[in-house]
Amino acid sequence: MKSVFAKSVRSVQGSILAGVITIGPLFVTYLIFRFLFSTLAEAGLPFVRFFASVFPLGWFSNPFMQSVLAILLTLAVLYVVGSITSAVIGRQVFGLFESALERLPFIAKVYTSVRQLIDTMMAKKPESQRVVLVDFPIVGQKSIGFITRTLSDTDTGELLAAVLLPNAINPTSAFLQVLPMSRVTETAMTMEQAMSMLLTGGAVGPDTIRYSSPPISTDGAASPESQIK
């Protein structure tokens, strides 16, 4: 009797696990798209509701239609802004806008930091897309990170790395670690492979990865810029 019950429990567990494996990627994809669409809709909803109050049409007051129009409106604005800033005149106007922002005490700090982070993550230079592993949260447990810059210790001159450690599933929040390069394990993963692993909880990614740290060369350790490549 017990063996039959145990087999039944194992069968149920196996079926549930198979269901999780099947539905998991779809659910994660759904969460990502839901977050993106919700963000786009929230950005455009105030303008759509304003137009709905000015033009009180029946279908215009429908909440679903308002959300769809808000998403389309936000995408259109993003497209127009991107097209304008891609032109020479647009870049000049955007440069003046950034200069004005840099004169605002608190906003300048936030805007500049976010802009530098986005430029670093979107850059095509290999040194700005270095995917690494670091011991976090404890020694022996590796976390995926991105080297955002290198710097040196004021007293010893040791080469240090600023490593951004995004959270799995929700990479919009992250930890920032500053640690010696000797404690960083460089990998051959691309940014796309690393983000796929983070977004899927490791379900999607390369079959092999460099886990052990190779010996760090001390030649040319005079400055961080000389060792970044």
Distance between the ends: 66 Å
Order of helices and strands: HHHHEEEEEHH
Strand order of the biggest β-sheet: 4-3-2-1-5
Mean of pLDDT = 77
Backbone structural class: alpha+beta
> Tell me, what's the shape?
flat
Beta content:
5-15%
Query: Which stretches are poorly predicted, pLDDT < 50 over at least 5 residues?
Result: 215-229
Number of strands: 5
Largest sheet: 5 strands, antiparallel
Radius of gyration (CA) equals 24 Å
Number of separate helices: 6
Q: What is the number of independent domains? A: 2
**Percent helix range:** 40-55%
Assembly type:
single chain
Question: Strands, helices and their partners?
Answer:
Blueprint (H helix, E strand, L loop, with lengths): L1 H53 L8 H24 L1 H14 L3 H18 L8 E5 L6 E11 L6 E8 L7 E7 L3 E3 L4 H9 L24 H4 L2
Antiparallel strand pairs: 1-2, 1-5, 2-3, 3-4
Helix pairs in contact: 1-2, 2-3
Task: Give a quick rundown of the structure.
By secondary structure, this protein is α+β, with helices and mostly antiparallel strands.
Write up this protein:
It is a single chain. It is built from 6 helices and 5 strands; from the N terminus they run ααααβββββαα. The protein has helices at residues 2-54, 63-86, 88-101, 105-122, 191-199, 224-227, and strands at residues 131-135, 142-152, 159-166, 174-180, 184-186. It has a 5-stranded antiparallel β-sheet with strand order 4-3-2-1-5. Strand 1 and strand 2 (142-152) form a beta hairpin. Helix 1 (2-54) packs across helix 2 and helix 2 (63-86) packs across helix 3. The longest helix is centred in the N-terminal third of the chain and has 53 residues, at 2-54. The radius of gyration is 24 Å and the shape is flat. The termini are far apart.
